[in-house]
Design a protein that fits this description.
about 425 residues, alpha+beta, Helix Hairpins, BirA Bifunctional Protein, domain 2, 2 domains, three-stranded antiparallel sheet, RNA-binding
Length: about 425
RNA sequence: GCAGAGGUGGCAGAGUGGUCGAAUGCGCACGACUCGAAAUCGUGUUACGUAGGAAUACGUACGGAGGUUCGAAUCCUCUCCUCUGCGCCA
Protein backbone atom coordinates (compact mmCIF):
# COMPACT_ATOMS: atom_id res chain seq x y z
CA UNK A 1 0.00 0.00 0.00
CA UNK A 2 1.40 3.40 -0.92
CA UNK A 3 0.95 6.70 0.89
CA UNK A 4 -2.36 8.30 -0.05
CA UNK A 5 -0.67 11.69 0.24
CA UNK A 6 1.39 10.74 -2.81
CA UNK A 7 -1.76 10.17 -4.85
CA UNK A 8 -3.18 13.46 -3.65
CA UNK A 9 -0.05 15.42 -4.42
CA UNK A 10 1.28 13.65 -7.46
CA UNK A 11 -1.36 11.55 -9.23
CA UNK A 12 0.61 11.72 -12.47
CA UNK A 13 3.55 9.92 -10.92
CA UNK A 14 1.25 7.15 -9.75
CA UNK A 15 -0.39 6.86 -13.15
CA UNK A 16 2.97 6.78 -14.83
CA UNK A 17 4.02 3.98 -12.52
CA UNK A 18 0.93 2.04 -13.57
CA UNK A 19 1.90 2.48 -17.21
CA UNK A 20 5.39 1.20 -16.50
CA UNK A 21 3.84 -1.88 -14.95
CA UNK A 22 1.41 -2.41 -17.85
CA UNK A 23 -1.57 -1.92 -15.56
CA UNK A 24 -3.27 0.80 -17.59
CA UNK A 25 -6.64 -0.63 -16.61
CA UNK A 26 -6.03 0.68 -13.08
CA UNK A 27 -5.45 4.27 -14.15
CA UNK A 28 -9.09 5.33 -13.55
CA UNK A 29 -8.67 4.13 -9.98
CA UNK A 30 -6.30 7.01 -9.27
CA UNK A 31 -8.95 9.64 -9.97
CA UNK A 32 -11.52 7.58 -8.15
CA UNK A 33 -9.26 7.49 -5.12
CA UNK A 34 -8.86 11.27 -5.21
CA UNK A 35 -12.63 11.69 -5.26
CA UNK A 36 -13.24 9.15 -2.51
CA UNK A 37 -10.51 10.71 -0.43
CA UNK A 38 -12.04 14.17 -0.72
CA UNK A 39 -15.46 12.74 0.11
CA UNK A 40 -14.09 10.87 3.08
CA UNK A 41 -12.45 13.95 4.49
CA UNK A 42 -15.59 16.01 4.05
CA UNK A 43 -17.64 13.35 5.82
CA UNK A 44 -15.10 13.05 8.53
CA UNK A 45 -15.04 16.73 9.32
CA UNK A 46 -18.82 16.84 9.29
CA UNK A 47 -18.87 13.88 11.65
CA UNK A 48 -16.25 15.50 13.84
CA UNK A 49 -18.36 18.61 14.19
CA UNK A 50 -21.42 16.57 15.12
CA UNK A 51 -19.44 14.59 17.65
CA UNK A 52 -18.12 17.82 19.06
CA UNK A 53 -21.73 18.91 19.57
CA UNK A 54 -22.56 15.59 21.20
CA UNK A 55 -19.69 15.98 23.63
CA UNK A 56 -20.71 19.52 24.48
CA UNK A 57 -24.33 18.46 25.06
CA UNK A 58 -23.30 15.54 27.23
CA UNK A 59 -21.26 17.88 29.38
CA UNK A 60 -24.15 20.29 29.62
CA UNK A 61 -26.53 17.52 30.65
CA UNK A 62 -24.09 16.44 33.33
CA UNK A 63 -23.96 19.85 34.92
CA UNK A 64 -27.72 20.36 34.60
CA UNK A 65 -28.31 17.07 36.39
CA UNK A 66 -25.99 18.11 39.17
CA UNK A 67 -27.89 21.35 39.52
CA UNK A 68 -31.11 19.32 39.47
CA UNK A 69 -32.51 21.21 36.48
CA UNK A 70 -34.19 18.09 35.17
CA UNK A 71 -36.54 19.69 32.70
CA UNK A 72 -33.71 21.45 30.92
CA UNK A 73 -31.67 18.28 30.99
CA UNK A 74 -34.45 16.37 29.27
CA UNK A 75 -34.61 19.03 26.61
CA UNK A 76 -30.89 18.72 25.96
CA UNK A 77 -31.22 14.94 25.87
CA UNK A 78 -33.75 15.17 23.08
CA UNK A 79 -31.42 17.47 21.16
CA UNK A 80 -28.58 15.06 21.63
CA UNK A 81 -30.67 12.15 20.42
CA UNK A 82 -31.52 13.93 17.19
CA UNK A 83 -27.87 14.79 16.79
CA UNK A 84 -26.91 11.14 17.30
CA UNK A 85 -29.17 10.07 14.47
CA UNK A 86 -27.22 12.33 12.15
CA UNK A 87 -23.95 10.94 13.45
CA UNK A 88 -25.04 7.36 12.79
CA UNK A 89 -26.00 8.33 9.26
CA UNK A 90 -22.69 10.08 8.55
CA UNK A 91 -20.73 7.26 10.13
CA UNK A 92 -22.23 4.54 7.99
CA UNK A 93 -21.71 6.67 4.90
CA UNK A 94 -18.14 7.32 5.92
CA UNK A 95 -17.46 3.64 6.61
CA UNK A 96 -18.70 2.76 3.15
CA UNK A 97 -16.47 5.34 1.49
CA UNK A 98 -13.51 4.21 3.57
CA UNK A 99 -14.00 0.61 2.59
CA UNK A 100 -14.06 1.43 -1.10
CA UNK A 101 -11.07 3.67 -0.68
CA UNK A 102 -9.09 0.98 1.08
CA UNK A 103 -9.94 -1.57 -1.56
CA UNK A 104 -8.77 0.78 -4.30
CA UNK A 105 -5.64 1.69 -2.38
CA UNK A 106 -4.76 -1.98 -1.97
CA UNK A 107 -4.68 -2.49 -5.69
CA UNK A 108 -2.42 0.49 -6.39
CA UNK A 109 1.07 -0.98 -6.72
CA UNK A 110 4.16 0.33 -4.99
CA UNK A 111 6.19 2.88 -6.94
CA UNK A 112 8.96 0.91 -8.61
CA UNK A 113 12.63 1.82 -8.53
CA UNK A 114 14.05 3.92 -11.36
CA UNK A 115 16.39 1.16 -12.45
CA UNK A 116 13.74 -1.56 -12.77
CA UNK A 117 13.79 -2.71 -16.42
CA UNK A 118 10.53 -2.08 -18.22
CA UNK A 119 8.90 -5.25 -19.49
CA UNK A 120 5.52 -6.92 -19.82
CA UNK A 121 6.06 -10.23 -18.07
CA UNK A 122 8.64 -12.75 -16.90
CA UNK A 123 9.86 -13.28 -20.47
CA UNK A 124 11.32 -9.77 -20.31
CA UNK A 125 13.28 -10.17 -17.11
CA UNK A 126 16.88 -9.12 -17.49
CA UNK A 127 19.96 -11.15 -16.76
CA UNK A 128 22.37 -9.51 -14.35
CA UNK A 129 25.78 -10.75 -13.37
CA UNK A 130 26.86 -14.40 -13.55
CA UNK A 131 28.98 -16.05 -10.91
CA UNK A 132 31.17 -19.12 -11.63
CA UNK A 133 31.25 -20.50 -15.17
CA UNK A 134 29.01 -23.52 -15.73
CA UNK A 135 31.22 -26.56 -16.29
CA UNK A 136 30.43 -28.89 -19.19
CA UNK A 137 29.66 -32.42 -18.06
CA UNK A 138 31.20 -35.12 -20.26
CA UNK A 139 28.08 -37.25 -19.80
CA UNK A 140 24.35 -36.79 -19.87
CA UNK A 141 22.93 -35.57 -16.56
CA UNK A 142 19.79 -37.52 -15.59
CA UNK A 143 16.57 -36.10 -14.17
CA UNK A 144 17.03 -35.23 -10.48
CA UNK A 145 14.62 -37.92 -9.29
CA UNK A 146 16.73 -40.52 -11.06
CA UNK A 147 19.87 -39.20 -9.39
CA UNK A 148 18.12 -39.29 -6.04
CA UNK A 149 16.79 -42.80 -6.53
CA UNK A 150 20.24 -44.08 -7.42
CA UNK A 151 21.48 -42.64 -4.13
CA UNK A 152 18.56 -44.28 -2.29
CA UNK A 153 17.69 -40.77 -1.23
CA UNK A 154 14.04 -40.42 -2.10
CA UNK A 155 10.76 -42.31 -1.78
CA UNK A 156 8.00 -40.62 -3.70
CA UNK A 157 5.71 -43.66 -3.97
CA UNK A 158 5.21 -43.92 -0.22
CA UNK A 159 4.77 -40.16 0.08
CA UNK A 160 1.98 -40.28 -2.49
CA UNK A 161 0.24 -42.93 -0.42
CA UNK A 162 0.62 -41.15 2.92
CA UNK A 163 0.19 -37.56 1.81
CA UNK A 164 -0.43 -37.32 -1.91
CA UNK A 165 1.36 -35.75 -4.81
CA UNK A 166 3.75 -32.93 -3.94
CA UNK A 167 5.24 -34.60 -0.90
CA UNK A 168 8.42 -36.62 -0.46
CA UNK A 169 10.47 -38.79 1.84
CA UNK A 170 14.15 -37.94 1.78
CA UNK A 171 16.29 -40.71 3.18
CA UNK A 172 19.81 -41.55 4.23
CA UNK A 173 22.71 -39.38 3.10
CA UNK A 174 20.44 -37.24 0.97
CA UNK A 175 18.27 -36.37 3.98
CA UNK A 176 21.44 -35.64 5.89
CA UNK A 177 22.65 -33.48 3.04
CA UNK A 178 19.37 -31.58 3.14
CA UNK A 179 19.82 -30.82 6.83
CA UNK A 180 23.50 -30.06 6.32
CA UNK A 181 22.68 -27.41 3.73
CA UNK A 182 20.22 -25.73 6.07
CA UNK A 183 22.62 -25.81 8.98
CA UNK A 184 25.43 -24.51 6.83
CA UNK A 185 23.19 -21.72 5.55
CA UNK A 186 22.14 -20.85 9.08
CA UNK A 187 25.74 -20.55 10.25
CA UNK A 188 26.66 -18.66 7.10
CA UNK A 189 24.08 -15.97 7.92
CA UNK A 190 24.97 -15.89 11.61
CA UNK A 191 28.56 -15.21 10.53
CA UNK A 192 27.26 -12.26 8.50
CA UNK A 193 25.88 -10.80 11.70
CA UNK A 194 22.26 -11.89 11.32
CA UNK A 195 20.24 -13.03 14.32
CA UNK A 196 18.93 -16.56 14.07
CA UNK A 197 15.25 -17.04 14.74
CA UNK A 198 12.83 -19.94 14.73
CA UNK A 199 9.34 -18.49 14.27
CA UNK A 200 5.86 -19.95 14.74
CA UNK A 201 4.89 -22.22 11.85
CA UNK A 202 1.26 -21.25 12.14
CA UNK A 203 -0.18 -17.75 12.19
CA UNK A 204 -3.56 -16.17 12.69
CA UNK A 205 -5.86 -14.98 9.96
CA UNK A 206 -5.31 -11.30 10.65
CA UNK A 207 -1.56 -11.72 10.23
CA UNK A 208 -2.09 -13.61 6.99
CA UNK A 209 -4.31 -10.91 5.54
CA UNK A 210 -1.73 -8.38 6.62
CA UNK A 211 1.11 -10.00 4.73
CA UNK A 212 -0.69 -11.02 1.53
CA UNK A 213 -3.69 -10.37 -0.66
CA UNK A 214 -6.86 -12.43 -0.48
CA UNK A 215 -6.14 -14.11 -3.82
CA UNK A 216 -2.66 -15.11 -2.72
CA UNK A 217 -4.09 -16.44 0.52
CA UNK A 218 -6.58 -18.63 -1.32
CA UNK A 219 -3.94 -20.01 -3.64
CA UNK A 220 -1.25 -20.64 -1.07
CA UNK A 221 -2.30 -21.03 2.54
CA UNK A 222 -3.42 -24.18 4.31
CA UNK A 223 -5.95 -23.50 7.04
CA UNK A 224 -6.21 -25.48 10.26
CA UNK A 225 -9.73 -26.77 10.56
CA UNK A 226 -11.81 -25.27 13.32
CA UNK A 227 -9.19 -22.75 14.36
CA UNK A 228 -8.11 -19.33 13.27
CA UNK A 229 -4.68 -20.61 12.23
CA UNK A 230 -2.85 -21.05 8.95
CA UNK A 231 0.33 -22.95 8.10
CA UNK A 232 2.94 -20.47 6.96
CA UNK A 233 3.95 -20.39 3.31
CA UNK A 234 7.31 -18.91 4.23
CA UNK A 235 8.86 -17.77 7.49
CA UNK A 236 8.68 -14.21 6.15
CA UNK A 237 5.00 -14.34 7.15
CA UNK A 238 5.63 -14.91 10.81
CA UNK A 239 8.89 -12.95 10.83
CA UNK A 240 7.32 -9.77 9.48
CA UNK A 241 4.09 -10.37 11.38
CA UNK A 242 6.13 -10.28 14.54
CA UNK A 243 6.50 -6.53 14.16
CA UNK A 244 2.91 -5.72 13.20
CA UNK A 245 1.63 -2.56 14.78
CA UNK A 246 4.83 -1.73 16.58
CA UNK A 247 7.05 1.30 16.80
CA UNK A 248 10.67 0.22 16.84
CA UNK A 249 13.34 2.24 18.60
CA UNK A 250 15.59 3.81 16.01
CA UNK A 251 18.76 2.46 17.58
CA UNK A 252 17.51 -1.10 17.08
CA UNK A 253 17.53 -0.69 13.30
CA UNK A 254 18.47 -2.31 11.09
CA UNK A 255 16.96 -5.57 12.28
CA UNK A 256 18.81 -8.28 10.37
CA UNK A 257 17.24 -11.66 10.98
CA UNK A 258 17.65 -15.10 9.51
CA UNK A 259 14.95 -17.64 10.13
CA UNK A 260 14.37 -21.31 9.56
CA UNK A 261 10.98 -22.84 8.90
CA UNK A 262 9.13 -25.47 6.99
CA UNK A 263 6.92 -23.87 4.33
CA UNK A 264 3.53 -25.11 3.23
CA UNK A 265 1.93 -24.12 -0.05
CA UNK A 266 -1.16 -25.28 -1.86
CA UNK A 267 0.30 -24.18 -5.18
CA UNK A 268 -3.26 -23.93 -6.41
CA UNK A 269 -3.36 -23.23 -10.09
CA UNK A 270 0.40 -23.45 -10.37
CA UNK A 271 1.83 -25.43 -13.23
CA UNK A 272 4.24 -28.18 -12.44
CA UNK A 273 2.85 -29.57 -9.21
CA UNK A 274 2.05 -32.69 -11.20
CA UNK A 275 5.62 -32.80 -12.37
CA UNK A 276 7.55 -35.67 -10.90
CA UNK A 277 10.14 -34.68 -8.36
CA UNK A 278 10.88 -32.00 -5.85
CA UNK A 279 10.87 -28.82 -7.93
CA UNK A 280 7.41 -27.63 -6.92
CA UNK A 281 6.00 -29.21 -3.79
CA UNK A 282 3.49 -28.63 -1.00
CA UNK A 283 6.04 -28.76 1.78
CA UNK A 284 9.64 -27.67 1.88
CA UNK A 285 12.13 -26.14 4.25
CA UNK A 286 13.80 -22.81 3.92
CA UNK A 287 16.38 -20.58 5.50
CA UNK A 288 15.25 -17.00 5.00
CA UNK A 289 16.62 -13.55 5.73
CA UNK A 290 14.68 -10.41 6.45
CA UNK A 291 15.76 -6.86 7.12
CA UNK A 292 13.80 -4.01 8.65
CA UNK A 293 15.65 -0.75 8.23
CA UNK A 294 15.39 3.00 7.85
CA UNK A 295 14.20 4.20 4.44
CA UNK A 296 17.56 5.61 3.41
CA UNK A 297 19.24 2.25 3.97
CA UNK A 298 17.01 -0.13 2.04
CA UNK A 299 18.81 0.20 -1.33
CA UNK A 300 22.05 -0.69 0.37
CA UNK A 301 20.55 -3.74 2.08
CA UNK A 302 18.88 -4.97 -1.10
CA UNK A 303 22.24 -5.28 -2.86
CA UNK A 304 23.79 -6.86 0.17
CA UNK A 305 21.05 -9.45 0.60
CA UNK A 306 21.01 -11.02 -2.84
CA UNK A 307 24.78 -11.03 -2.88
CA UNK A 308 24.78 -13.10 0.32
CA UNK A 309 22.79 -15.78 -1.48
CA UNK A 310 25.19 -15.66 -4.39
CA UNK A 311 28.13 -15.96 -2.01
CA UNK A 312 26.57 -19.00 -0.37
CA UNK A 313 25.99 -20.79 -3.67
CA UNK A 314 29.47 -19.91 -4.88
CA UNK A 315 30.94 -21.32 -1.67
CA UNK A 316 29.17 -24.57 -2.57
CA UNK A 317 30.57 -24.33 -6.10
CA UNK A 318 27.23 -23.95 -7.80
CA UNK A 319 27.15 -21.49 -10.72
CA UNK A 320 24.46 -18.83 -10.34
CA UNK A 321 23.23 -15.64 -11.94
CA UNK A 322 21.09 -12.71 -10.95
CA UNK A 323 17.86 -12.29 -12.87
CA UNK A 324 16.41 -8.81 -12.55
CA UNK A 325 12.66 -8.74 -12.34
CA UNK A 326 11.09 -6.42 -14.92
CA UNK A 327 8.29 -3.95 -14.16
CA UNK A 328 5.43 -6.14 -15.40
CA UNK A 329 6.55 -9.19 -13.46
CA UNK A 330 7.05 -7.29 -10.21
CA UNK A 331 4.45 -8.02 -7.52
CA UNK A 332 2.42 -4.98 -6.50
CA UNK A 333 4.01 -4.57 -3.09
CA UNK A 334 7.54 -4.54 -4.48
CA UNK A 335 9.83 -1.65 -5.27
CA UNK A 336 12.44 -3.88 -6.75
CA UNK A 337 13.12 -7.59 -6.89
CA UNK A 338 15.48 -10.14 -8.36
CA UNK A 339 15.85 -13.89 -8.45
CA UNK A 340 19.01 -15.81 -7.82
CA UNK A 341 19.08 -18.64 -10.34
CA UNK A 342 21.27 -21.73 -10.27
CA UNK A 343 22.70 -23.51 -13.26
CA UNK A 344 21.12 -26.79 -14.30
CA UNK A 345 23.61 -28.91 -16.24
CA UNK A 346 20.79 -31.18 -17.34
CA UNK A 347 18.53 -28.47 -18.77
CA UNK A 348 21.49 -26.29 -19.75
CA UNK A 349 19.79 -23.27 -18.31
CA UNK A 350 19.37 -21.38 -15.06
CA UNK A 351 16.40 -21.91 -12.75
CA UNK A 352 15.10 -20.03 -9.74
CA UNK A 353 16.43 -20.95 -6.32
CA UNK A 354 15.76 -17.74 -4.43
CA UNK A 355 14.13 -14.36 -4.61
CA UNK A 356 15.13 -11.04 -3.07
CA UNK A 357 12.78 -8.07 -2.66
CA UNK A 358 12.79 -4.55 -1.37
CA UNK A 359 9.23 -3.60 -0.46
CA UNK A 360 10.19 -0.13 0.79
CA UNK A 361 7.41 1.10 3.07
CA UNK A 362 4.51 -0.62 1.27
CA UNK A 363 4.41 -3.69 3.49
CA UNK A 364 5.25 -1.68 6.60
CA UNK A 365 2.38 0.72 5.96
CA UNK A 366 -0.05 -2.16 5.60
CA UNK A 367 1.16 -3.76 8.81
CA UNK A 368 1.91 -0.63 10.80
CA UNK A 369 5.62 -1.25 11.26
CA UNK A 370 7.19 2.05 12.22
CA UNK A 371 10.23 3.46 13.92
CA UNK A 372 10.84 6.62 15.87
CA UNK A 373 12.88 9.02 13.78
CA UNK A 374 14.99 10.91 16.32
CA UNK A 375 15.79 13.67 13.85
CA UNK A 376 12.18 14.59 13.12
CA UNK A 377 10.77 13.23 16.39
CA UNK A 378 8.05 11.50 14.38
CA UNK A 379 7.04 7.90 13.89
CA UNK A 380 7.76 6.86 10.33
CA UNK A 381 7.26 3.68 8.36
CA UNK A 382 10.30 1.44 8.16
CA UNK A 383 11.41 -0.38 5.02
CA UNK A 384 11.22 -4.16 4.79
CA UNK A 385 13.22 -6.57 2.67
CA UNK A 386 13.29 -10.32 2.37
CA UNK A 387 15.41 -12.86 0.59
CA UNK A 388 15.84 -16.60 0.39
CA UNK A 389 19.09 -17.88 1.81
CA UNK A 390 18.41 -21.36 0.60
CA UNK A 391 15.43 -23.70 0.15
CA UNK A 392 16.95 -27.17 0.09
CA UNK A 393 14.56 -29.47 -1.72
CA UNK A 394 14.76 -27.26 -4.76
CA UNK A 395 18.37 -26.25 -4.31
CA UNK A 396 19.17 -29.97 -3.95
CA UNK A 397 18.38 -30.29 -7.66
CA UNK A 398 21.08 -27.77 -8.51
CA UNK A 399 23.42 -29.32 -5.99
CA UNK A 400 23.08 -32.87 -7.27
CA UNK A 401 23.26 -31.96 -10.94
CA UNK A 402 26.33 -29.80 -10.52
CA UNK A 403 28.27 -32.20 -8.30
CA UNK A 404 27.29 -35.43 -10.01
CA UNK A 405 30.01 -37.74 -11.30
CA UNK A 406 29.63 -40.16 -14.17
CA UNK A 407 29.49 -43.15 -11.79
CA UNK A 408 26.41 -41.68 -10.07
CA UNK A 409 28.25 -40.47 -6.98
CA UNK A 410 27.90 -36.88 -5.81
CA UNK A 411 30.78 -34.78 -4.51
CA UNK A 412 30.35 -32.80 -1.35
CA UNK A 413 32.10 -29.46 -1.49
CA UNK A 414 34.58 -28.73 1.26
CA UNK A 415 32.47 -26.11 3.00
CA UNK A 416 29.76 -28.70 3.65
CA UNK A 417 31.87 -31.66 4.66
CA UNK A 418 31.96 -30.90 8.35
CA UNK A 419 28.16 -30.94 8.38
CA UNK A 420 28.22 -34.37 6.71
CA UNK A 421 30.44 -36.03 9.26
CA UNK A 422 33.53 -35.53 7.11
CA UNK A 423 32.12 -37.29 4.05
CA UNK A 424 33.50 -36.10 0.73
CA UNK A 425 31.06 -38.01 -1.45
CA UNK A 426 27.67 -39.65 -1.51
CA UNK A 427 27.88 -43.06 -3.15
CA UNK A 428 25.04 -44.79 -5.05
CA UNK A 429 23.36 -47.67 -3.27
CA UNK A 430 24.18 -51.19 -4.44
C1' G B 1 -8.67 -28.32 29.28
C1' C B 2 -10.73 -26.43 34.29
C1' A B 3 -10.74 -22.53 38.16
C1' G B 4 -9.24 -17.68 39.83
C1' A B 5 -6.87 -12.81 38.83
C1' G B 6 -5.77 -9.28 35.30
C1' G B 7 -5.05 -6.33 30.37
C1' U B 8 -4.96 1.69 31.23
C1' G B 9 0.49 6.51 28.35
C1' G B 10 7.83 4.69 26.87
C1' C B 11 7.53 1.80 31.85
C1' A B 12 5.20 1.10 36.75
C1' G B 13 0.43 2.06 38.51
C1' A B 14 -4.42 4.89 40.30
C1' G B 15 -9.17 5.40 38.48
C1' U B 16 -15.74 1.53 38.96
C1' G B 17 -21.16 6.24 34.76
C1' G B 18 -20.27 13.15 33.68
C1' U B 19 -15.48 18.10 35.86
C1' C B 20 -10.90 11.62 32.89
C1' G B 21 -6.75 11.69 27.62
C1' A B 22 -6.63 9.94 32.32
C1' A B 23 -3.73 10.97 39.49
C1' U B 24 1.07 9.62 41.18
C1' G B 25 5.98 7.72 40.48
C1' C B 26 9.92 6.47 37.03
C1' G B 27 11.93 7.71 32.41
C1' C B 28 12.82 11.53 28.75
C1' A B 29 13.47 16.96 27.06
C1' C B 30 14.37 21.94 28.38
C1' G B 31 15.45 25.55 32.16
C1' A B 32 17.21 27.26 37.21
C1' C B 33 20.98 26.38 40.93
C1' U B 34 26.61 24.90 40.20
C1' C B 35 33.34 26.09 38.14
C1' G B 36 31.16 21.34 36.52
C1' A B 37 28.30 17.19 38.10
C1' A B 38 24.99 14.68 41.56
C1' A B 39 20.93 16.02 44.44
C1' U B 40 17.01 19.58 44.36
C1' C B 41 13.39 22.86 42.17
C1' G B 42 10.45 24.57 37.83
C1' U B 43 8.27 23.66 32.94
C1' G B 44 7.03 20.30 29.31
C1' U B 45 6.27 15.19 27.60
C1' U B 46 0.59 9.50 24.32
C1' A B 47 -0.63 8.18 19.43
C1' C B 48 -3.48 8.68 15.08
C1' G B 49 -6.83 11.55 11.74
C1' U B 50 -8.68 16.39 9.73
C1' A B 51 -7.84 21.80 9.00
C1' G B 52 -3.57 25.26 9.28
C1' G B 53 2.76 28.04 7.35
C1' A B 54 2.67 27.69 12.54
C1' A B 55 0.68 28.41 17.28
C1' U B 56 -3.52 25.77 17.74
C1' A B 57 -8.52 23.76 17.15
C1' C B 58 -11.76 19.66 16.60
C1' G B 59 -12.29 14.40 16.49
C1' U B 60 -10.83 9.27 17.70
C1' A B 61 -8.33 5.67 20.80
C1' C B 62 -7.98 2.72 28.10
C1' G B 63 -6.47 -5.47 24.47
C1' G B 64 -10.31 -6.34 20.19
C1' A B 65 -15.58 -6.52 18.39
C1' G B 66 -20.59 -5.47 19.55
C1' G B 67 -24.41 -3.48 23.06
C1' U B 68 -26.87 -0.24 27.07
C1' U B 69 -26.88 5.35 27.88
C1' C B 70 -27.88 12.13 26.45
C1' G B 71 -22.83 10.56 28.17
C1' A B 72 -18.56 4.47 29.05
C1' A B 73 -11.65 3.26 31.03
C1' U B 74 -15.94 2.43 34.40
C1' C B 75 -22.17 -1.42 33.16
C1' C B 76 -23.60 -5.92 29.73
C1' U B 77 -22.30 -9.79 25.78
C1' C B 78 -18.73 -12.18 22.84
C1' U B 79 -13.58 -12.71 21.79
C1' C B 80 -8.14 -12.51 22.16
C1' C B 81 -4.00 -12.32 25.30
C1' U B 82 -1.17 -12.57 30.07
C1' C B 83 -0.43 -14.36 35.11
C1' U B 84 -1.44 -18.01 39.28
C1' G B 85 -3.21 -22.87 40.76
C1' C B 86 -4.88 -27.75 39.10
C1' G B 87 -5.00 -31.31 35.12
C1' C B 88 -2.56 -33.18 30.68
C1' C B 89 1.88 -33.62 27.82
C1' A B 90 6.49 -34.13 23.95
Amino acid sequence: MIDIALIRENPELVKNNLKKKFQERKIPLVDEICELDAKKRALQSEGDNLRSTRNALAKEIGSLMREKKFAEAEEAKAKSKANNDRIAQIESECAEVEERLKKDMMSIPNIIADDVPIGKDDSENVEGKRFLEPAEKPFEVPYHVDILEKLAGIDLDSARRTSGNGFYYLTGDVARLHSAILTYARDFMIDKGFTYCIPPFMIRGDVVSGVMSFEEMEGMMYKIEGEDLYLIGTSEHSMIGRFMGSVLPEEKLPLTLTSYSPCFRKEKGAHGIEERGIYRIHQFEKQEMIVICKPEESDYWYEKLWNYTVELFVSLKIPVRQLICCSGDLADLKYKSCDVEAWSPRQKKYFEVGSCSNLTDAQARRLGIRYRNSRTGKNEYAHTLNNTVVAPPRMLIAFLENHLNEDGSVDIPEALQKYMGGKTKIIPAK
